[in-house]
Amino acid sequence: MSITDAFSFLLQGYTPSIILIVLGVLLIIRQRLAIQLDPQEPPILKPRIPYIGHIIGLLQHQSAYFDKLYARKPLPIATLPMITSKLYVINSASLAQSAFRHKNLSFDPFTLEFAQRMLAVSNESMVPIRFPGDDKTPSFLAEFVKELHGAMAEKHLGKMNASALQRVADTVNEIGTTFETESLYLWLRNMMTLATSDALFGSHNPLQRDRSLVDAIWNFDSDLLGILLNIYPAVTFPKAYKARGDIQAALIEYYTAKHDLEPDVSQMTKARAAILRKHHVPDTDIGSFELALLHVSTANAIPTLFWHLLFLLSSPTVLPLIRAELSTIITLSPSREATVNTSLFHTHCPLLVSSYRETIRLANSQAGSRRVIADTLLSSGDGAQRREFLLRAGADVQIPAGVPHLSSIWGPDAAEFDAERFLEKDKDKDQKDGKEKAEDKEMKKSFFPFGGGKHLCPGRSFAFAEILGCVAVLVAGFEVRDAEGREIGRPRLGRGRLGDAIVKPEGEWRGLGARIRRREGWEDVRWRFEC
Ligand code: HEM
Ligand SMILES: *[C@@H]1O[C@H](CO)[C@@H](O)[C@H](O)[C@H]1NC(C)=O
Ligand SMILES: *[C@@H]1O[C@H](CO)[C@@H](O)[C@H](O)[C@H]1NC(C)=O
Ligand SMILES: *[C@@H]1O[C@H](CO)[C@@H](O)[C@H](O)[C@H]1NC(C)=O
Ligand SMILES: *[C@@H]1O[C@H](CO)[C@@H](O)[C@H](O)[C@H]1NC(C)=O
């Protein structure tokens, strides 16, 4: 309503005082809600419903909202007004890579918020965890993250690979000629949750003592954001709340008994507990905190495994080629023991590795979160290509991998599964012309399923080993069909919930039953892994 319209209202004899009050309130709200935008900041992308539209969009469409916004307006980076704050959304792969590496964009505020709201770590323990660092010492979280990466270095991985895959071997070795399950996903999920937790926690793995905790992790995961909201979670999200309590109680027992000091425990588990103890965090809070470890190491890897297996099973031309590759890394002893040599995936199974990367390109829409801790110029490109945007302190940045994962750089079939997409092309590097080299570089930048910068997922090599190991036996040794014995169809993947890196199987895919039968020639073998 313009000022003159307002006046004409008044002159028509409406009660002036009421109208003046309403106008005044509207004006104040407008000023309060108006997002101040510097011309150097990323262009604003207004929601269709003023002020609250983006929040409604995110709640309604979850991760898919970023794809929708990009389809509406393909900006390299946009400012989304969110009632009183703003969110910068990065769509350009180059800007995403600069953001991951930028020291003024921090992940720490989110880690701290998760620790307190999602894991309910006590206020006393939050004090050392919040330690921001000083001239002599790095911050607690800087030290913690550095330790994580050291703990997942090559020399520590062998033990984890071997432990996780031992559980896979034990499970498949129990299969007689045929095995049927009502849900292939839940069968895999159960096996791999145990496999991963064995690898992390060793022989006192709390999930082995109480198998109900396997489902508890996934109950916790299914209402993670509700728990994070932290508004009377016991009432608002009772199932996830109870699951959290049950797992934390078991982990508290584990750390109180100092089981993490035992030799068959992963370096990852040991190092994290050691640094928390060094800062005088009691075992009870270590137990609460380490629900995070159990959760990050299962939540994304296991759905990835499911989609990878399904993509292969539904590719009749690719499957025999993958089996041929696998036959070169499997040795069969006279006593009918089949050994998969997992250190040979990279060199001997290029199509399998390519199909894994292709699966995560399609299934992974992780949206990295960072907070701008000081006014920052984020730039990308050189010369005429150079772009620079001002990011204001206090705002949040979201970096949805889903957008570059499906961008036109992948070609017209970007939305389709192509097992060969990541094969090193025949031509060697010297023969490629400038354009091809530039395209390769662009694809590399546009693929970041594991995030980047110093928070790049430390579990990615372990995930590679456990997923490919499990897929390898199931594909090489077994025929996996649906419950009626038919070939499994090609999945169409949507997007996951906010906070999920990988879309989880729902509906028909979650309910997909399977008949798993030993392949001809492999009926009598016992499987094992060489790591
Ligand atoms: C396919 C499976 C996996 C995917 C897609 C995945 C993805 C990610 C992503 C996107 C991040 C955040 C990176 C960022 O914000 O820049 C992350 C962090 C992390 N991941 Fe993974 N991850 C997977 C498997 C694992 C496994 C198996 C483990 C442990 C054994 C693990 C441990 C972690 C940890 C500890 C962090 C936190 C790192 C930090 O705060 O600096 N992840 N992961
Ligand atoms: C931490 O302290 C706040 C008040 O300062 C309180 O509301 C909250 O319940 C405490 N959290 C825990 C986990 O003790
Ligand atoms: C564990 O598996 C990863 C992925 O295959 C591999 O890079 C690493 O070499 C393995 N480590 C050992 C010691 O087996
Ligand atoms: C597995 O492959 C590695 C690397 O080539 C090799 O050193 C090792 O002997 C192989 N193990 C088996 C059992 O073949
Ligand atoms: C990062 O923040 C500091 C202030 O803490 C500021 O001086 C610096 O210019 C910022 N860096 C960039 C590249 O904007």
UniProtKB/TrEMBL annotation:
Q: To which species is this protein native?
A: Hyaloscypha variabilis (strain UAMH 11265 / GT02V1 / F) (Meliniomyces variabilis)
Instruction: Cite a single Pfam family from the UniProt record.
Output: p450
Q: Where does heme bind?
A: 457
Record-annotated membrane-spanning stretches:
6-29
Quote the protein name from its UniProt record.
Answer: Cytochrome P450
| Xref: PANTHER family | P450, PUTATIVE (EUROFUNG)-RELATED (PTHR47582:SF1)
Q: Which GO terms describe its molecular function?
A: heme binding; iron ion binding; monooxygenase activity; oxidoreductase activity, acting on paired donors, with incorporation or reduction of molecular oxygen
Name the family the entry cites: Belongs to the cytochrome P450 family.
Task: Name the SUPFAM superfamilies for this protein.
Answer: Cytochrome P450 (SSF48264)
Q: Record keywords: Transmembrane helix included? A: yes
Q: Per its Swiss-Prot or TrEMBL entry, what cofactor is needed?
A: heme
Arranged from A to Z, the UniProt key words for this protein are:
Heme, Iron, Membrane, Metal-binding, Monooxygenase, Oxidoreductase, Transmembrane, Transmembrane helix
Q: Which domain of life is it from?
A: Eukaryota
| Coiled-coil ranges from the UniProt annotation | none
